[in-house]
Design brief:
Blueprint (H helix, E strand, L loop, with lengths): L1 E4 L10 E4 L9 E10 L2 H8 L15 E9 L11 E4 L29 E5 L3 E3 L6 H4 L2 H13 L9 E5 L3 H12 L3 E6 L2 H9 L4 E4 L6 H8 L5 E6 L5 H6 E9 L14 H7 L2 E4 L5 H14 L5 E6 L3 H10 L5 E5 L2
Parallel strand pairs: 8-9, 8-11, 9-10, 11-12, 12-13, 14-15
Antiparallel strand pairs: 1-2, 3-4, 3-6, 3-15, 4-5, 5-7
């Protein structure tokens, strides 16, 4: 079998390919033949050297993947040979609040999914919704679960409420799709008319071009009659305008940063206090949240948005495309 390997801060040029023997599952492990993996911003964070959680040397990268169970350990009860599965990024985070003792993660402190075969603890396994391909299912573990947690893990979204999504990255697109499935109104920001058209096709009720309207929070207030939005899915780290967009007792799900710490402006404590809104940090989600999301995707027949699919041998090219192309939708690496 072949697998790619990476090191913290080594960049895309530091990716390497090696051959290994196909492993045998331990008593509580399953052996998965990986059919697809997908990139998320965390993968660039690792290669750039500023991912906040531990990354082991020479790790098999990528947290997101999907495949078929081809062997199981003698004590496995949560999967059988032939199951189509993906895996929770945090295999030990079964339910409840996130904590350091459950912070071991695929593609970081544990080997990930950019490989032909992988061993997973049975606790990590989540079955794929029946209507999704392996390529589609591979997009779910990071971006989709993060979006689900952002909308349901704190002040749970209700029908008729208003959600603000920022940009057209994976978390924002899944947030848009989930919010519409909940019966919510969605206001989205983006940077071009072409992306705005695509966001409207996916269900956005209003789209704001943040380049044409730099003070986009003012437009959000106009669109909500001055009240502000009930939920903000904040993916940039530049919180001021999100705080100014939020309703009193609204929630800002602080998903992550698109710039290194030095590029993020400080938070105005007075502004936050006066807003009456809550800021909640989101670290992907638990297996219980993943399973709840998978059930909702199954019932709603939701389909992830995929921008482009690369072959496994072209994984380095896929990384470069993801870094520079500003894709609208997920970038997938498939075994063909």
């Amino acid at each position: 079998m072949k697998s790619f390997h990476a090191n913290l801060g080594a960049g895309i040029d530091g990716l390497s390919v090696r051959e290994h023997d196909i492993p045998e599952p331990g008593p509580t492990e399953v052996l998965v033949q990986v059919h697809a993996a997908s990139l998320s911003f965390r993968e660039l964070m690792i290669l750039r050297g500023w991912y906040p959680l531990p990354v082991k040397p020479d790790v098999v990268p990528i947290s997101d993947g999907a495949g078929e169970v081809i062997a199981v350990g003698e004590r496995v009860t949560r999967a059988v040979v032939g199951d189509r599965v993906t895996a929770s990024i945090f295999p030990r985070w079964i339910d409840g609040s996130f904590a350091l003792e459950v912070a071991a993660q695929l593609g970081g402190s544990l080997d990930g999914m950019l490989t032909e075969y992988t061993l997973l603890d049975e606790e990590a396994v989540v079955r794929i919704p029946d209507h999704l391909s392996y390529e589609e299912a591979a997009t779910l573990p990071c971006a989709a679960v993060t979006a689900w947690n952002a909308l349901t893990g704190g002040r749970s979204l209700r029908a008729g409420e208003t959600v603000l999504t920022l940009g057209s990255g994976g978390v924002s697109l899944f947030s848009l799709q989930f919010a519409k499935a909940f019966g919510a109104r969605v206001i989205a920001t983006t940077s071009s008319e072409a992306k705005a058209r695509r966001l409207r096709e996916l269900g956005a009720d209003e789209v704001i071009d943040y380049r044409a309207t730099p003070a986009w929070h003012e437009r959000v207030r106009e669109l909500t009659g001055g009240a502000g939005v009930d939920h903000v899915v904040e993916t940039t780290g530049r919180l001021e305008q999100s705080i100014r967009s939020a309703a009193t007792e609204g929630e800002i799900a602080f998903v992550g940063l698109l710039a290194e710490d030095t590029g993020v402006p400080p938070i105005d404590a007075k502004l936050l206090w006066m807003s009456g809104a809550d800021v909640r940090t989101v670290a992907v989600g638990s297996r219980a949240q993943f399973r709840a999301m998978a059930r909702a995707i199954q019932v709603g027949r939701l389909k992830p948005v995929i921008d482009r699919v690369f072959a496994f041998d072209d994984a380095v090219e896929a990384y470069r495309y993801y870094e520079h192309a500003q894709p609208l939708g997920k970038v997938v690496i498939a075994h063909r």
